[in-house]
Amino acid sequence: MAGRTFPVSWWELHRDAKALAWRLMDKSEKTGPFKGVVAVARGGLVPATIVARELELRLVDTLCIASYSDREQGQVNVLKSIEGDGTGWVIVDDLVDTGATARAVRELLPKAHFATVYAKPEGRPTVDTFVTEVSQDTWILFPWDSEMQEVPPIARGR
Ligand SMILES: O=P(O)(O)OC[C@H]1O[C@H](OP(=O)(O)OP(=O)(O)O)[C@H](O)[C@@H]1O
Ligand code: HPA
Ligand SMILES: [Mg+2]
Which of 44, 47, 55, 148 could bridge 39 with an S-S bond, Cβ 3.0-4.6 Å? Predict the structure, then answer.
């Protein structure tokens, strides 16, 4: 259960997704360029766009997987998959939390490289490359799920 909130702005998301692209670039310099990017829609779409742009990859596909409704986790529902075993592809998602989505992704494309921008401890072992770890009880608030609003002073909330 998420106790605190970690808000991420568009600018921070762009910076962190670029940091992921740098790490993936380092990897691809050792193992050869990736064939393309698979975005785990919907959360992986924006980070995947940024990674594809930085790695100059024009081949982009999607895995469409849904499991959360608001902050409640349900069953992992694969709405759209792709053919093959993922060899040479990099899969990009916004984060791993429990790792349930990542496990489903790995079953579908076992040979792909799986990368996320953020990771929580439970899901961390399921990811090959990530940038920032947050605690398990933190809810990452993405810019597409939020807007600016007035908040009371901290002192009043105690
Ligand atoms: O590690 P897990 O516990 O599986 O959680 C991580 C997944 O949950 C979110 O997707 P969500 O199901 O909310 O769908 P969305 O990407 O369309 O928002 C997020 O984008 C990851 O894909
Ligand atoms: O911390 C989170 N933030 C946004 N979406 C999520 N889906 C699973 N965990 C999270
Ligand atoms: Mg998702």
Answer: 44
